[in-house]
Design brief:
By secondary structure, the chain is an alpha+beta fold. Helix content is 20%, strand content 25%. The protein contains 4 helices and 6 strands; from the N terminus they run ααβαβββββα. The chain has a 4-stranded mixed sheet with strand order 1-6-5-4. The protein has a two-stranded antiparallel sheet with strand order 2-3. The longest helix is centred in the last third of the chain and has 13 residues.
Length: 158
């Protein structure tokens, strides 16, 4: 209902999923509107490192220039992850190949494209899900429920 939608908007709930053609994790958009703690679910750690200053000489991948729009002053080669917890994958898992929770802290740099001011402390809570399943065009979503179940079993086994 419209009343529920308005109540949700007033409470500050914001769903950010896929930053699309700007910054694919959605983190920069969340930080630009004031978030100081962001949970990001990723299947590759490039989504995290791309938020930080590039290492010297790392602006190309296989000769192709990387789009790099850093929002944090720390370098991607610095030890970024703290409070890491690597879960043991449940025996018999078909889809889940890795599962890790980690905390990353960063200090913002001025980024005019996103309207981010420098000097803000931001905490990223990273949920890494390693799987051979993919998203996007021509993906088969029939196994996503199985992956979700394996994540829950993995967490409950700890």
């Amino acid at each position: 209902s419209r009343a529920r939608l308005n109540a949700c908007a007033r409470s500050g709930v914001a769903a950010v999923i896929d930053g699309g053609y700007t910054e694919g994790s959605g983190v920069a958009q969340a930080v630009s509107v004031g978030a100081h703690e962001v949970v990001m679910v990723v299947s590759d750690l490039d989504s995290v490192s791309g938020l930080f200053q590039p290492e010297k000489g790392s602006t190309e991948t296989l000769g192709i220039p990387r789009l790099h729009l850093p929002i944090f002053e720390e370098r991607e080669g610095d030890p970024l992850f703290e409070e890491m917890h690597d879960f043991h994958i449940t025996e018999g898992s078909q889809f889940l190949q890795g599962f890790m929770l980690a905390t990353v802290r960063g200090t913002t740099v001025r980024n005019q494209l996103f309207g981010i001011a420098e000097g803000r402390q931001v905490t990223l809570r990273v949920v890494f899900v390693g799987t051979h399943l993919a998203i996007g065009l021509l993906s088969d979503y029939n196994h996503d429920c199985g992956l979700a179940q394996e994540i829950v079993q993995c967490m409950l086994s700890e």
